[in-house]
Design brief:
The protein contains ten helices and eleven strands. By secondary structure, the protein is of the alpha/beta class.
Length: 368
């Protein structure tokens, strides 16, 4: 019975994952998957999905299944209307929350967007260890005693001593017969990566624009985490001046003022040059803005820093332009005009939340 329950529960989770897969674009655009991040799970509200079960009503109620019934008798208590009538004692429709690991979400995202595995290059800084069994020894802990080798040695000893009786084949190992597995600890070099997120927080970037950036960066993080064992994330916000902040500040800060994109690119280069040698790290840089910059001179300076400082060390540079009614939208045209043929530079226009999935595909679909 217990095994059957586990099988039914596993099947139910597969049904839920199928529902998540079908509604992935809707969940992402609404940000429903980001409601709670407890450890490595994310709570996903899945509407109209429930575990099948019997429901019993009040014994004093009539109806089919409780005494005599006639064709056409209602199966429920009433056909109540939403928001009308007196307080009742029956349960209503509920939203079921299913805990799905971030790895499972990233797997679903990768399958839906056909994301390729990424090219890695740095394997020097992140080191893990693995114990590997490499032979047999005469000493060791009992937990590693090799059953077959021990009894084979005991059999050989009894045959050599003439004490083995084929008619009554009892083999009793002694201390000298025992054999144990031996192991060796190996160092494994793991691929590691750093993501630097830069976001324009000037007056033209409103809460909706920052929410789009938050949702998209969460999914980019989720995918890259499945590709690399060691993943660092750094955050830069800028208006006319750039500064490095923590994750919470990045997504909740309220700023205003002008915009100088070059300040973010310069700070990004300083962080990478100081903390992340290009020979050891896979480097991903993302900049989100509404495309409005202070001047043509600063745009020129930004593109020069990008070309001379950031692109040589980056696996890719992604520029996402979020639509804002207050932004000019010019910067993406400047980037495309300068780097249109550069494979490392990927641009994406995000009109609204519905465009997040397509933007993720733009950034990660080439497997850089």
């Amino acid at each position: 019975m217990s095994l059957k329950i586990h099988q039914d529960h596993a099947r139910f989770r597969q049904i839920v994952k199928g529902r998540v897969r079908q509604e992935l674009r809707k969940f992402i655009s609404k940000g429903e998957m980001l409601g709670r991040e407890g450890g490595k799970t994310v709570s996903i509200p899945v509407p109209q999905v429930d575990i099948p079960r019997f429901r019993f009503g009040d014994r004093q109620m009539g109806g089919v299944g409780q005494g005599e019934g006639e064709p056409g008798d209602p199966l429920s208590q009433s056909d109540g209307q939403d928001g009308a009538g007196e307080a009742g004692d029956q349960e209503g429709a509920h939203v079921l929350e299913i805990d799905v690991t971030i790895e499972e979400l990233a797997e679903i995202l990768g399958e839906e967007l056909s994301l390729p595995h990424l090219e890695d290059k740095g394997k020097e800084r992140i080191v893990s260890t693995r114990d590997r069994f490499v032979g047999i020894k005469n000493v060791g802990p009992e937990s590693l005693r090799h059953f077959k080798r021990t009894y084979r040695q005991a059999l050989r000893r009894q045959i050599a001593a003439g004490t083995y009786n084929p008619e009554r084949p009892i083999i009793i190992p002694v201390r000298e017969d025992k054999r144990y597995r031996s192991w060796r600890t190996e160092e494994l070099r793991e691929s590691n990566a750093v993501i630097v997120y830069m976001m324009d927080v000037s007056g033209s970037m409103g809460e909706e624009q920052k929410e789009i950036v938050r949702i998209e960066s969460f999914w980019i993080d989720a995918w890259l985490t499945t590709q690399y064992k060691g993943l660092d994330t750094r955050f830069i916000i800028h208006d006319a001046v750039a500064r490095e902040v923590d994750r919470d500040t990045f997504f909740h800060t309220r700023e205003s003022g002008g915009t100088m994109i070059s300040s973010a690119y310069k700070l990004c280069h300083e962080i990478l040059e100081r903390d992340y040698p290009v020979s050891d790290w896979n480097i991903y840089t993302f900049h989100f803005s509404d495309g409005d910059n202070w001047s043509a001179d600063d745009t020129k300076q930004s593109l020069e820093v990008l070309e001379e400082k950031l692109l040589p060390v980056s696996n890719m540079f992604g520029y996402g332009q979020v639509h804002s009614p207050y932004g000019s939208g010019q910067f993406i045209r400047d980037v495309r005009g300068r780097f249109g043929d550069t494979d490392k530079v990927i641009t994406s226009e995000i009109a609204d939340r519905d465009g997040i999935m397509d933007s993720i595909k733009d950034f990660l679909g080439k497997g850089k």
